[in-house]
Structure formats: structure tokens, C-alpha cells
Specification:
Structural class: mainly beta
Helix content: under 10%
Low-confidence stretches: 5-10
Oligomer: single chain
Bound molecules: 2-acetamido-2-deoxy-beta-D-glucopyranose
Largest sheet: 8 strands, mixed
Shape: globular
Keywords: Signal
Organism: Mollisia scopiformis
Strand content: 15-25%
Protein name: DUF1996 domain-containing protein
Distance between the termini: 36 Å
Pfam family, one: DUF1996
């Protein structure tokens, strides 16, 4: 379904509650990982990060991010959370790698790269958005996906981490677990949906994942109930990253092999993209997220303060790790071995 027709259809109903969809421009692309490798500089592989400018080598969960941050790259200016993923690289047949640029999504055309972020109460295409969800709390963080995964069997543990081959900017399907097998004229959308059932107690866990769970059956999208161990239904957090592959059109292999690799996997042991992963550090000001989820918000949200794209694009961080990340590189930053 085209996003534009979806929005058109939904404009006709008055949703009782909220789905918010917003752009966050690039904050920085850096080899840091404050969740998995806090204090380690540089971390094992490169990430692309959006959100508030308190992102750093170490992020103490006791800090009040929202009061420390001075800007955010996100459209909703009370959101100082950080959202990040690995970085996609194109591998040339001569053995060198180049970072695939990111572009703003449909509706966020002038964004400086970054991602589109969603918080949903019900499935994306459910017009009601009326189920009660509990917003994340101060200090909350989580990870989905696993950079060491190289097989479909392992990747299946994570529901709904997918790719969409964009024929144009509005393409929203089909989604595949593997990188697209041919060149996509408008780029590749990497889709990451987080688990939606929380244990109600822990803001984090040693592997940054076990305080969260998937519904007993199906997914959040299909309305499955949460397990007893993780009874609290939280918003479906969903990231879309538009990887703009257009500059590689003439270099794309004709034999169906994928020239893509995530930043953790320079040796190419994951040719399919099963190691897609993403991180979240909650940083909304006060109860802004809960208020938004309890309001009549659809995409836009007058309950929340909004800043202009120009202001979003102005917020950025200097790289902590000084190393080449652009141009044709003989190896990926950090030379990860997959
Ligand atoms: C990151 O942490 C270092 C060390 O604590 C500090 O000096 C620096 O100001 C922090 N950077 C940002 C952008 O907060
Ligand atoms: C690899 O190909 C790129 C793009 O054509 C070129 O700029 C680069 O110099 C080549 N590198 C090597 C080592 O051949
Ligand atoms: C939306 O709510 C109405 C009225 O409660 C219900 O009949 C309908 O099935 C719901 N639609 C979806 C997609 O859940
Ligand atoms: C959200 O707001 C923007 C800017 O005012 C507007 O262009 C867009 O159409 C709105 N989207 C929806 C779904 O209301």
C-alpha cells in the first residue's frame, strides 16, 4: 500500500489514540556503542545514530538525558532518545567498500539522512490505534537483532527485521529477511521492529534484550497477547532507514549476488543481511511519550512540540573516533571479521 493513500484513508477516521511517525536527521556516524561496549572507544563496528546530543561513549542510565541534552535531530523536540543501527556498505568487486548514504523518507525529503521512527499502539495498517500501551521509562534501553547472526534459522528468532526493495519512495512491500537480490531503483528500506512486551521491572538486562519479549503468538502487528513473564504492552517501536543505493547502479552485480554488507561483517560471512540490529535508549522529556500515546495523534501530534527540518538538521555531534568512513575503503572501519 502506498503511504500516501494510507494517510489519505486514515484521515477519514478519527482514531481514538495514537500512532506517531516522525523523521530524525543524522546526529553522527561513529564507531561507538554505549550499550554493548560502554567506555570502549572505538567499538567493534560502525553505527549511524539519530536523536539527542547526549549520545556518547558511555551513557549512564541514571542520567536524565532530557535535561542534559541541548538539541535533538528528531521532529518532536521533546524526544532526546537515541536510535541507532549498523551501517550499510557496498562491496566493490575490486575488494574495496563504500558507505551507502542515507536519505530522508517519504515526507521528510530535506532531512540530512537519518531514520524514520514510529511508536504505535496497534498494527501499522490498523485504523483504530486504540489499544492501551505503556510508554518506556527513564533509563530504559534495549537491543533487537544480533550482529553475529549469519543464518536464516537464527534470524527468525527476531520477528519483523526486514528489507524492502524500493521501486519508488512509496513502495512498502514485499518485505524480505534477506537483502534484495537485485538493484532497487529508489534504494533499500531497512525495517526494524522491536519486541513489544516488557517484564515491567527491568529498565535493561545483561544482554539488553531479555527484559523484553514478543507476544505469545504472532507479533504486535497481529495483536498477539503478551506472555505472563513480560505482561506489559509497550508501543511498537519501529525504525525505517532509507539506504540510497542509486550511486552504485552501474556497479551492481548482474548475477543476483548481493554486494551489500553490514558494518560488522567485512569478511562477508553474512551475505544475506541476517545480522541487521538496532539499539534504543529512551530519552523523552517527562511524560511526553505517554501523553502522546494517550492523545488523538496520527503521524503528526499537536500534543507534542515540533521543530522544523532546518532545526533538526542543525543538531549534530562531532565524531569521537577519528578515522576514514567515506570514499572507497580497503577495509571496513575496525576491520571486523564477521
Ligand atoms: C562525552 O563524554 C566525555 C567524557 O565524559 C565528555 O568530556 C564529553 O563532553 C561528552 N560529550 C558530549 C557530547 O556530551
Ligand atoms: C575500486 O573501484 C573504485 C570505483 O571504481 C575505484 O575508485 C577504486 O580506485 C578501486 N580501488 C582499487 C584498489 O582498485
Ligand atoms: C476497529 O474498531 C471497530 C469498532 O470497535 C471494530 O469493529 C473493527 O474491527 C476494528 N478494526 C480493526 C482493524 O481492528
Ligand atoms: C503532518 O504535518 C506536516 C507539516 O505540517 C504536513 O505536511 C503533513 O501532511 C501532516 N501529515 C499528516 C498525516 O497529517
Amino acid at each position: 500500500m502506498l503511504w500516501s493513500s494510507l494517510v489519505g484513508a486514515l484521515a477519514l477516521v478519527a482514531p481514538t489514540n495514537a500512532l506517531i511517525r516522525f523523521g530524525c536527521s543524522q546526529l553522527v556516524v561513529d564507531r561507538l556503542d554505549p550499550l554493548v561496549q560502554p567506555g570502549v572507544e572505538p567499538s567493534a563496528h560502525l553505527h549511524q545514530i539519530v536523536g539527542g546530543n547526549t549520545f556518547n561513549v558511555t551513557m549512564d542510565p541514571n542520567n536524565d538525558i532530557a535535561s542534559m541534552a541541548t538539541c535533538t535531530t528528531c521532529q518532536f523536540s521533546e524526544d532526546f532518545s537515541n536510535y541507532w543501527t549498523a551501517v550499510l556498505f557496498f562491496k566493490h568487486k575490486n575488494g574495496t567498500y563504500k558507505r551507502v548514504p542515507q536519505i530522508g523518507n517519504l515526507g521528510f525529503d530535506n532531512a540530512n539522512g537519518g531514520m524514520t521512527i514510529y511508536y504505535m499502539q496497534d498494527a501499522l495498517y490498523n485504523m483504530n490505534q486504540s489499544s492501551k500501551v505503556t510508554a518506556f521509562k527513564k533509563g530504559f534501553r534495549m537491543i533487537v537483532g544480533n550482529p553475529t547472526i549469519t543464518t536464516k534459522e537464527d534470524a527468525r528468532k527476531f520477528r519483523q527485521i526486514t528489507y524492502t526493495c524500493l521501486q519508488d519512495m512509496a513502495t512498502r512491500g514485499p518485505e524480505t529477511m534477506e537483502f534484495p537480490t537485485s538493484y532497487c531503483p529508489a534504494g533499500i528500506l531497512a525495517n526494524v521492529r522491536f519486541p513489544t512486551c516488557w517484564d515491567g521491572k527491568n529498565l535493561d538486562s545483561p544482554n539488553h534484550a531479555s527484559h523484553m519479549a514478543y507476544p505469545i503468538s504472532g507479533t504486535f502487528e497481529s495483536g498477539g497477547p503478551c506472555p505472563d513473564s513480560h505482561p506489559v504492552r509497550v508501543p511498537q517501536l519501529f525504525y525505517e532507514t532509507n539506504w540510497d543505493t542509486r550511486e552504485f547502479k552501474d556497479l551492481w552485480p548482474a548475477d543476483g549476488t548481493s554486494p551489500l554488507t553490514w558494518s560488522q561483517n567485512g569478511m562477508g560471512t553474512d551475505r544475506e543481511g541476517y545480522g541487521s540490529h538496532a539499539d534504543y535508549v529512551f530519552g523523552w522529556k517527562g511524560d511526553a511519550l505517554q501523553r502522546a500515546m494517550d492523545s488523538n495523534c496520527y503521524v503528526n501530534c499537536t500534543t507534542l512540540k515540533t521543530q522544523t527540518m532546518e532545526e533538526q538538521n542543525k543538531c549534530s555531534l562531532a565524531n569521537v573516533v577519528k578515522e576514514p568512513i567515506d570514499g572507497w575503503l580497503p577495509q571496513l572501519p575496525g576491520n571486523p571479521t564477521g
